[in-house]
Amino acid sequence: MNRDSNIYTILYASIMVVLVAVVLAFTSQSLRSYQQENEENDKRQQILRSINVQVPANEAKAKYNELIKDAFIVNEQGERIEGDAFAADAAKAFEQHAYPVFIAQADGQTKYIMTLSGSGLWGPLWGYISVNDDRNTIYGADFSHSGETPGLGAEIVLPSFSGQFAGKHLFVNGEFKSVEIVKPGKSVAGQDYVDGISGGTITSQGVNRMIFDSLSGYVHFLTSQNQ
Amino acid sequence: MGLSTKNKEILLGPLSKNNPVIIQMLGICSALAVTSKLEPSIVMAVSVTAVVAFANVIISLLRNTIPARIRIIVQLVVVAALVTIVSEVLKAFAFDVNKQLSVFVGLIITNCILMGRLEAFALGNGPWESFLDGLGNGLGYGIILVIIGFFRELLGSGTLLGFQVIPDVFYQWGYVNNGLMILPPMALIVVAVIIWVHRSRNKDLQEN
Asked: What is the DSSP letter of B55?
């Protein structure tokens, strides 16, 4: 057959595209269950890191089931609503004014874990932040990103950054202030602050906005004492 | 090894005298993006080597059937399919590595070395030679990436593969990590230094 004819070219392209599509669909389908499990364990690891518990991926499920006592979704008024907190995608849930909460038992005390979702320089950021049972003092935090610059913005995942949040207060005199992320060496009056990442300014600002915006939805939950 | 002289040249040439990065100036963009730390540099080197070797074999096997007018499209589809498969497999079995590489896996598709080798070599040579050529070029690219990643992480963060190698004492004496090394332009300067060293050792490569 003439390799330069139009018919050959069109046939070749069509068959190739169909074949490649089949191969890719097959790969995706056959690996789906492994990927889902990895993603879920990764999420469990992140939640556990926010209460300062580090476990390898294969132990995440057991540890999660042991430490996390309850998981539910609240609305902006802090009332429980229907839904699966673990399966919820934070960005989508926030749009519908649904806020996932996880209740953990650590150091013999109850910790409240809240979900964060925002955007950095190149893509989405997300994370988890836990508070003590006074619902004000931060117990731990963990941040993740999908594509921040390695060596710069990507450093937000390191404990050297997230560890700074422990002991900071979200409320000052009963008013929600969040925790400000500042240039290393700077300070802010009237609220707690931590150092940002040098050279990762946009990502640091993204984390700053993410904490403020996400936790704003939790204010009623955190301030209502009747839960 | 049972390689003929010609095949040895195909495999080892790209490591030095015919290096894709420092001689042909291909793949510079990714050398700049992923090398601020050593670990992503190594994973990127391995991924590119795997993709270019297998893409070369596939294109070489198909070379007598590919219509000349759409050969670039065919090459792109093969490369894109391979990269997607690599990415899916990483997600299933090496989730941490996949998280490390994040966007860079997708960027393998745009690496000029791939298209360059497919177009220049695989379309005109048999599968075995093409495989060696892909392997050689991937490794040639990888060596440069690892060298750049080594210096950028060492000088920029004081660590290697995430472990601190510069002792705390140095910092107490006033040593400061060079933050400039982490920024992309320094990758170009490191590449330039490598080229300088390489050419002064291989006089025959110098242009007048």
From this structure: H
Of B40, B81, B102, the CB nearest to A20: B81
The whole-number pLDDT of residue B208 equals 66
Please list every residue in chain B whose beta carbon sits closer than 8 Å to the beta carbon of residue A34.
Answer: 92-93
With CB atoms and an 8 Å threshold, state whether B85 touches A13: no
Residue range of the domain that includes A75: 47-223
Q: B70 contacts in A (CB within 8 Å)?
A: 9, 12-13
B179 touches chain A (CB under 8 A): yes
**Nearest C-alpha of chain B: how many angstroms from A219?**
32
Q: Tens of pLDDT along B119-176?
A: 888 888 889 999 999 999 999 999 999 999 899 888 888 888 878 888 888 888 888 8
Chain B residue with minimum CA distance to A4 = B67
A163 within some domain: yes
Decide if A89 is inside a domain.
yes
Q: Which of B68, B95, B103 sits opposite A147 (nearest CB)?
A: B103
Confirm whether A78 is domain-assigned. yes
Query: Does residue A92 lie in a domain region?
Result: yes
Burial B180-200 (b: 16+ CB within 10 A, else e): ebbbeebbeebbeebbeebee
Instruction: Provide the percentage of residues in chain B whose pLDDT is more than 70.
Output: 97
pLDDT at A10: 92
The predicted-structure confidence for A191-222, as pLDDT tens digits, reads as follows 899 999 988 899 999 999 999 999 999 998 88
Is the model's pLDDT at A227 over the cut of 50?
A: no
Is this complex's ipTM strictly greater than 0.90? no
Q: What are the tens digits of pLDDT across the range A146-202?
A: 878 777 888 899 889 999 999 999 998 888 988 999 988 888 888 899 999 988 899
Question: How many residues belong to chain B?
Answer: 208
Total of domains in chain A? 1
- The verdict on a CB contact (< 8 Å) between A9 and B73 is no
- The tokens of A211 are what? 């904490």
* Top-confidence residue, B12 or A210: A210
* A47 C-beta neighbours (distance < 10 Å), count: 25
* Mean pLDDT of chain B, nearest integer: 84
Instruction: From A161, A149, A166, A157, select the one nearest A200 (Cα to Cα).
Output: A149
Q: Which of B65, B81, B89 sits opposite A31 (nearest CB)?
A: B89
Contact between A207 and A118 under an 8 Å Cβ cutoff? The reply is yes
Of all helices (H) and strands (E), which one includes residue B192?
helix B184-201
Q: Which of residues 50-79 of B touch A (CB under 8 A)?
A: 65-70, 73-74, 77-78
Find, among A203, A201, A132, the residue nearest to A170 by Cα: A132
